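hey m, so remember when u said the tokens were messed up on ur end? i reran from scratch. heres the input so u can diff it against urs
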Amino acid sequence: MKCALKVEEEAKYLVELGVEPYPILPIRIFREELKKTISTDALMDTGFDGAMVLSRSLSNFILDRIVKADGFEELDAAGIGIPCDTCILHIYVGGRWFKVGAHMPRMGDLGTILGRRVLNRLTLCLRGPQGKVFLAKS
């Protein structure tokens, strides 16, 4: 089947020892107190209902630069409650800026994750055998 969408950006799958390769997207994060944008990669997780989870190091970096978190929420991960600080961020992905609520777990490190609240607003094509992700404009 041929895709009639125009590809705007291409990303890759990350390959790590001991786990199946997984799709990642390059993102930029902005909040006024940060003064600049932060560039990083985020795991695409269609099993996560929310917008975004930040890695421990990214959470610490942001929390060190803002007065305080915007709120608190407990994430449910397979029936286990994970306490999280939350903050509003602007993220750039797929050629667009989004205002999102980001979760910053107080324990553990889940990595930086994009969930369905963002992914469902993008047009994506996953090519697992080739290890590529394509972002398109519809």
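this time it looks ok to me. The radius of gyration is 15 Å. if urs says something different then somethings off w ur setup not the seq
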